[in-house]
Amino acid sequence: MNPLSIRIPEVELKDLARMRAFVMESTMMLGGNTEAASELKIAVNEALTNIIIHGYQGKPGFIEIFVERDTNDIRLSLLDNAAAFDPTSVKPPDITIPLEQRPIGGMGIQMMRSFTDELDYRPTADGMNELIFIKRNAIIRSAIP
Amino acid sequence: MEISVSQENARVPVTIFQLNGELSGEEPLSGLAKDAYDDGTRYLLLDLSKVPYISSSGLRAIHQVYYLFRGQVSDESEQEVRQGIISGNYKSPNLKLLKPSKNALKALSVSGYDMFLEIHNKKSDALASFE
What is the pTM for the complete model shown? Predict the structure, then answer.
């Protein structure tokens, strides 16, 4: 089965709800369980928000999402052509620091890591960012044809 | 995200925000909390039972509310807070959380917020904990 995909040519924050719905629905269509779909949606939402706000910074740019089944796993990849950025290279925050002593924010990448089983980044040959999320053992039934 | 506001009189007057929907932005939570604080509220319970998940932006809103409700503290209580933080048993006396869903609780846990905010599963217990 080919990956399910959606492409938003000029992505804006208002498109987030539509993309979250796509992640949820496509994971379920591929046979994924509700819990895996929900967690994947939460992880991907953080990446999408970062791409729109910090990657494109208000300039026009696209996001493309591919979701596919890989044996018992769900594999989702995001493509964008914002400036190169590897979230997997960012050091995890020290969550034991009291809220009093922390700057507000900075939890997006931590959420990406925590709500998926594997997070990989690679720059594509044509200079785009590809961010890959894998949910392990997420499949509970056959894909809906 | 919709927020309904109610009041309960426990040992102290407690304002309850019942959040309904995804907590995926700073507003309306931050703005409503600021309004409540300006109107004299000092004890706030966030009922998260109808929040399916919290994003990093939602965590930022909770952090802002936490700071807001710390308010003005005396040097003495500042020292007590610091001592509590050092010993690892400080939790906000002003802001508490009620019944987070599984994914909301996971967001609070992976960010470490659950170490510094009391989380209750029963409203009566949450209200009784304010003093």
Answer: 0.90
Closest CA to B127 of B10, B41, B22: B10
Question: Number of C-alpha atoms within 13 angstroms, CB side, residue B30?
Answer: 14
Nearest chain A residue to B103, by CA:
A39
The yes or no reply on domain B2-129 and CATH 3.30.1330.60 is: no
Contacts of B51 in chain A (CB under 8 A): none
Q: What is the CATH number of the domain that holds A18?
A: 3.30.565.10
- B91 interface with A at CB cutoff 8 Å: no
Q: Which of B24, B53, B85 is the closest to A98 by Cβ?
A: B85
Q: Is the ipTM of this complex over 0.85?
A: yes
The pair of structure tokens assigned to A141 is 């039934």
**Inter-chain CB proximity A42 and B55 less than 8 Å:** yes
Q: Please give chain B's pLDDT, 131 residues, in tens.
A: 899 999 999 999 999 999 999 999 888 999 999 999 999 999 999 999 999 999 999 999 999 999 999 865 555 566 777 777 667 677 888 999 999 999 999 999 999 999 889 999 999 999 999 98
Task: Decide if A104 contacts A66 (C-beta within 8 A).
Answer: no
A:B CB pairs within 8 Å: 66
